[in-house]
Write a sequence for this structure.
């Protein structure tokens, strides 16, 4: 264990690269008293560091010229780009030199490198990609949102266990309300995968399982964690993002449609700013990959320095609160139920 959290940041990742990754990471290190390791082209990183106040900031630069392209296959990156910044960042965690990673680069490569380099927690069958999303009340955790397209009932069950620990430590929910995404609220609704996962959830006393929830329940704030497979979760996430963007454009168009509407928009300016902050992905930093031996945060490719700052904050909080220890305890305590799920499918 390090005396302070150490987070490796893929300085070359994302659409913008070092010009946002470096200042975001350095600001997080200064604000939260942690250390960041900036992985990437040393010349480009140092050019950004020269623009920043660094007194009292714990940081290190690890040089590499190789970068994982945003359009490259994760399998190709794993096999052919051993010195890509994301691979090196993950190896720092495996070697115990860092506690976690943050990357706005190729999301598939980040998940793959996390699984095959950092490795899974013992007992975890499938690490899951979680997304923190705004609702009418408090944020929720939706998972999986793309790491596992094809899931078995015991995978969904383990997702719920891991998300429960994450929501307690990172969102500070005392007893997170967990729902299973289905086509109806009643028990017995859904496909075979969902029905069998429902039965596993009912058998554990370690979480606050509410039962099935529908897509319309995602944003009401009546549930804290929503569990689904990566195919459904990714569709739900992208649909939510697209709807938010389109609604914003439609609203702007209407507000600019007449003089009276423009006056109304001016009077409601503060409210619109607050709303924009609530739905801004940068406020949440990124999506954690739960179930790895170290934390990995996958950021949006278009992340700005604020998003990187919040992603590093999330990673350091995960480390400080020892959330992985709770994940290990939850998985271990419910191994018999996970085994039951495997037996049912066989």
């Amino acid at each position: 264990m390090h005396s302070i959290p150490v987070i490796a940041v893929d300085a070359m990742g994302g659409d913008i690269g070092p010009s946002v990754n470096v200042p975001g990471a350095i600001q997080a290190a200064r604000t939260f008293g942690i250390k960041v390791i900036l992985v990437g082209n040393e010349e480009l990183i140092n050019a950004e560091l020269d623009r920043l106040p660094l007194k009292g900031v714990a940081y290190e630069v690890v040089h590499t010229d190789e970068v994982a392209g945003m359009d490259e296959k994760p399998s190709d990156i794993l096999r052919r780009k051993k010195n890509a910044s994301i691979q090196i960042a993950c190896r720092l965690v495996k070697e115990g030199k860092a506690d976690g990673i943050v990357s706005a680069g190729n999301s598939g490569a980040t998940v793959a490198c996390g699984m095959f380099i950092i490795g899974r927690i013992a007992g975890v069958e499938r690490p899951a990609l979680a997304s923190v999303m705004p609702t009418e009340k408090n944020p929720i955790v939706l998972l999986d949102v793309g790491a596992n397209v094809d899931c078995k009932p015991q995978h969904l069950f383990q997702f719920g266990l891991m998300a429960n620990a994450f929501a307690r430590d990172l969102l500070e929910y005392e007893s997170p309300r967990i729902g299973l995404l289905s086509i109806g609220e009643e028990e017995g609704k859904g496909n075979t995968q969902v029905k069998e996962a429902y039965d596993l959830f009912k058998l554990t006393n370690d979480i606050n399982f509410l039962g099935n929830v529908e897509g319309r329940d995602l944003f009401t704030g009546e549930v804290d964690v929503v569990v689904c497979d990566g195919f459904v979760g990714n569709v739900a996430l992208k649909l939510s993002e697209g709807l938010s963007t389109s609604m914003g454009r439609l609203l702007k168009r209407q507000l600019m449609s007449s003089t009276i509407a423009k006056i109304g928009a001016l009077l409601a300016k503060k409210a619109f700013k607050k709303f924009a902050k609530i739905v801004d992905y940068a406020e949440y930093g990124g999506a954690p990959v739960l179930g790895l031996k170290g934390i990995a945060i996958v950021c949006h490719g278009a992340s700005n320095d604020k998003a990187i700052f919040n992603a590093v904050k999330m990673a350091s909080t995960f480390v400080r609160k020892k959330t992985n220890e709770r994940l290990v305890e939850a998985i271990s305590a419910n191994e018999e139920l996970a085994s039951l799920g495997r037996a049912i499918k066989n």
About this structure: The two ends are 40 Å apart (CA to CA).
